[in-house]
Amino acid sequence: MPLELLEPPSLTATSVEASLQYLEPSPDRPVVSFANEGRGETNAVFSPRRVRVLDARGLGATMNVQGFELIRHASSVADFEDDDWVKIVGYGEAEQIVQAATGARRVHVFDATRRKRSPDSPRQPSVRVHNDYTPASARQRVRDLLGERAKQLLQRRIAFINVWRPVNHPAVDWPLALADARSVDAADLVPTEIVYPGRVGEIYSLTYSPRHAWRYYPALALNEAILIKCYDARENVARWSPHTAFDNPLAPPGVPPRESIEFRTIAFF
Length: 269
Ligand code: OGA
Ligand code: FE
What we know:
This protein is 13% helix and 36% strand. Strand 2 (31-33) and strand 3 (41-42) form a beta hairpin. It is mainly β and 269 residues long.
């Protein structure tokens, strides 16, 4: 599809109305299990809420205030679907991007997740409002990944940051919505157990609040990336920006299904 077809005037609208899936409050601890492949079985109830998602372009959002930011970056990865390109070139780029954006002493890249909204893809866009870690699971992840060095590393500031970028074409279909960290209350965050085949993790699901200030980057381009703060040990800055993919009402018919990759990193200060 020619590029100009992806950018009709409507894509420059300053906001869209969308449905986001929120956790319904419940006395039970939510558990989502990916133990048996597939989309995740859960005891929790998620239901859609209508929200307004504002264009974040021109906002000048930063990871320490809103919890996310936009960067321009032309990747040298020739093929994001090729593991060698992702591991050998992509990881190094993500490390440099996060290092430059944070001034961290060292950055550790530990995962890359490709998603595609197509029936044959094992990883689909994530359609529930969440934050990737809780303070407990972030610290546990450092221990799991870095073994004996963890104890020392955890005595200083660390932050978990995702580098999220479109693959093959701009992210028009099912883009990412991000909540301004300042609009999220501790009471909105519900620790949610995530059961993987060999590991149990914990994320935050979110219950609805009309205070949540939602943002997105219309038609995020191949030379752009979103940095998403998912945990910060420091408490006087934005600690996380909950997020989710959403069905974009402004996506023109026939626009290609969203393809993306997110690099997961830990910044050590
Ligand atoms: C993430 C994430 C969801 C998506 O990068 O942490 O939740 O749909 N991504 O890309
Ligand atoms: Fe996430």
